[in-house]
C-alpha cells in the first residue's frame, strides 16, 4: 500500500508526514514524529493512556487513523506546558503525588484538561466519571481526583 | 565499614516530609522514557507466535516461508535458545516458558518469533510459520487438575513432600506442611468450629505498560538490553545464563517502569529479543500487545482452600487448620507454600497446621503479584474468622484483638515475632470513626487483617559528593512508585543537607554492583539501608578531608547538621565546614569524595494491616459498589508519607478489583476468553470512593530509621474485607472470589430456595 501525505497541526505547529492507510494516529505520533508521551497500554481504546485532543475532542489516539488528522488540530501531552511553566494540572499532579509509575499520567492530564475546559467546577462524581476511561493501576485514583480538584480550584482563582 | 543497623532514637528533619519527586516533571510532560519509548539505529521489530492450544505437542515447525519473506531478518524457535540449564529446573522452566520446546503448555505459549524491518512485515511473516500441533487433553481448574483421572501435564511428576513417595505421576508437584501443636487436640477443646471451602479465580497484575525491550547483540559477544523491569541485575543474570553470555558483556538499563506489582520480576520476552538480535545481528525491539500480556505473562494463582477454626465460647481460638491448593501454571514453584505460611500469621495460635499443594495446570506460568499468595489465604481465613466471631456472638474486631499475635508470639510459619503491628492496627480500626458510622439500606460493613513477610536482600549504592557539594545517589533498585524521592530524603537526612541538594538515579548494571529486584517490599527498605551506609562512609571521608583542611587529627572532627565540626579545646573556635566547602577543596585534599555501600539488608520487619470496607449491593442486579474504605497499616517509619499512602490506596484498589470483578475466564477449549481490559475489568475511577489511610509507625528494630517495607501488605486484606462486607450486606456467606454480580445473584437465589 502506498503512503498517504498528511498535513496537520500538532501543539500549534504545522506538521507534515507520510503514513500508511491503516496506521493509527498513536503510531504516527510515537514512531514517526517522536512524540512518545502518548502511551500504548492496550491498543483497543480501553485504557486511555494514549489520550490526545483532536479539534477540541478528547480521543484515544489508538482508535484514530493517522490519515484522519489531515487538516485538524491535535494537542498532546508534549504541548501542555507553556514553555517552562507547567500547566496547573501538571503541577498539582506532582504536588499531590498523583502518580506512582506515571505511565497513565499523560493520558490522565490530557483528559483532565479537556474536562476543566468544559466544566471548570466539576463535582467529585463528575471528575470520576469523566476519568473512567483512563486506567491507573497504581494509585487507586484518590490522589488523582484530589489533584484535579486542586487544579480546578487554582484555575478558578480560588486561594489554595 | 559495616553498617550499624540499630534503631536510632532520632528526631527527623527530612524523613517524614513530603517533597515533590525528582522524576515528577519528566512524568507529567511526557518526557520520561518507558520500555517502549526507546529506539536504536537500524532496529528491527519483533513479533512472537503463540500457541492457540491449551496443551499440544509440537510435531514440527516450518519457518522456511517466513524466512523467505522480503524484509524478514531472523526467525527463531526453541532450537535458537538451546537448553543451557545444566540440570537447574528453575532455569529450564524459565527457558521453556520463554519458548516452548516439544510441548505448548498453555494458550499463548510462545513457539516461534520473527524480527523484520517493520511490524507489518513481522506480522505477515508470523502468519507464514507452519506449526504442526498434536492437540493433547488439557486441564485449567485447580480441583479438576488434582482429580485422579485428570489429564497429566507430565508423566514425570511425582508429588514431592509425601512419605512414602507416590508411585503414580500427578499434577501435584509438591505438598508442604507447616505449623505447630496438635490441631486435633485443639479442635477437641473448641466449643464452636467453623469449616468452609473457598475458591478464588486467577487475576493479573494489570500494569498499564506492556512488557517492552530493545535488545542489541554485537558480533564481539557484547550485548545491551533496554527494558522495563523490576530488577535489571536479575534480568541480566537470567538472560546471560539462558543465552550463554558472560555477565559482564551484557549491559542492562532499566527504563522507567509503567507498573510491575511482581509481574516484571520474571523474564519472558527479553531472552527472545536477545536471541533474535544475535541471529539478525541488528538491534531488535519487542513490545508485547495487551492480549499477549494477559495470555502469556503474569498471572497469579487460582486457588481452592479449606479452612477449619475452633474457638471457646469466650472467644479464644483453640486450633486452626487450612488446606491450600494453588495453580502454578505448567511449572512447579512454591505459591501454595507461601499461602500456607501466611494464612494464620496474624494470630497467636497454640495449635495450627497448614498444608499447601502446588498444582500444575495448562495456564500461564504464575508470577509474583504483590504479596504473592497471601491475599487468597487471607480471604479464606479472615472469612472463617468473621463467621466464627458471629457464631459465638462476638464483635469481629474484638475477636481478632483477643487472638492477635504480638511480640514474642511464635508465628504459624515458624519464627518468633519481634515488635509487630497487628494489635495496634486492630485497635486503630476499633477506634476509627468509620467503624461506627451508620450504614444505609443494602449496605454491609466488613473488616479483615493481612500479613506480609517483607524481604531485604543484596543491595549496593554509590553516593557521590559532587564538586559543588550537591549529591548524586546511584541505586540499583528500580523505582516503581517514588523511591527516588524517598531515598533522596534518606541521604539528605543522614548527611544533614537539603533534600533539593540530592539527586537519586537508578544506575545500570555496568555502573553499580549487583542488586536484587524491587520485590518483597524491599526497594525503600533495603536501598535506604545502603544509602545510610554509603552516606556514613562519605561522612567519614569528609571528616578526614576537614581534618586535612584544618591540619588536625581526624578523631577531633565530628559531623553534625551537614557540617564538619572541630571538637576539643584546641580547635573549638574553627567555623564548621559545610559539604559544599569540603567538596570545593576535594581536589587538594585527596580527590573525589564518594561513599559506597554493599550489603545484605537483613531484618526486614514483618508487616500487618487492617482494612474496613463498606459495600452497597443492588439485590435486583447483583451489582455492588464500595462506598467507604479505610486502610490502617504499620509502616515502621514512613519515609515519604504521600507515597506510603499511595501504596496503601493502590494495593487496596487492586484487592477490591480482585474481590469484585477480575478473573481469567477460560473456555472449554482451554483458551483465555477475556485477554483485554474491556472484558478483564480492573477498577476505574468511577467505581471507587476516596480510600482513607492511617499510617501507624511501630519501628522496625533492625533498621536505623525503623523502616519497614510498605508496598505489598495493602493487597492482602481487601479480598476478605470486601467478602465480609458483601456477606453482611446480603446475609449470605460469599465463598467464591470474585464476587461478581452473577455470583451474588446466584447466592441470593440459593438462599431463597434454601
Characterize the structure shown.
The complex is a heterodimer of chains A (160) and B (754). Chain A is α+β, with helices and mostly antiparallel strands. Chain A folds into 2 domains: 76 residues, Beta-grasp domain (Ubiquitin-like (UB roll)), CATH 3.10.20; 68 residues, [2Fe-2S]-binding domain (DNA polymerase, domain 1, Orthogonal Bundle). Chain A is built from 5 helices and 5 strands. In chain A, helix 2 crosses helix 5. The longest helix of chain A has 14 residues. Chain A is globular. The relative contact order of chain A is 0.15. With 754 residues, chain B is an alpha+beta fold. Chain B folds into 3 domains: 155 residues, 2-Layer Sandwich (Aldehyde Oxidoreductase, domain 4); 183 residues, Alpha-Beta Complex (Aldehyde Oxidoreductase, domain 3); 301 residues, Aldehyde Oxidoreductase, domain 4 (2-Layer Sandwich), CATH 3.30.365. The chains are: A alpha+beta (160), B alpha+beta (754). Chains A and B meet through helix 2, helix 3, helix 4 and helix 5 of A and helix 1 and helix 19 of B.
Keywords:
heterodimer, A: 160 residues, alpha+beta, Ubiquitin-like (UB roll), DNA polymerase, domain 1, 2 domains, 5-stranded mixed sheet, 16% strand, B: 754 residues, Aldehyde Oxidoreductase, domain 4, Aldehyde Oxidoreductase, domain 3, 3 domains, 7-stranded mixed sheet, 6-stranded mixed sheet, 21 helices, 27 strands, globular
Amino- and carboxy-terminal Cα gap of chain B: 70 Å
- Number of helical regions of chain A: 5
CATH superfamily of the largest domain in chain A: Beta-grasp domain
Using the CA coordinates, give the radius of gyration of chain A: 16 Å
Structural class of chain A: alpha+beta
Shape label of chain A: globular
First and last CA, distance of chain A: 55 Å
Helix content of chain B: 25-40%
Number of domains of chain B: 3
> What fraction of residues of chain B sit in β-strands?
15-25%
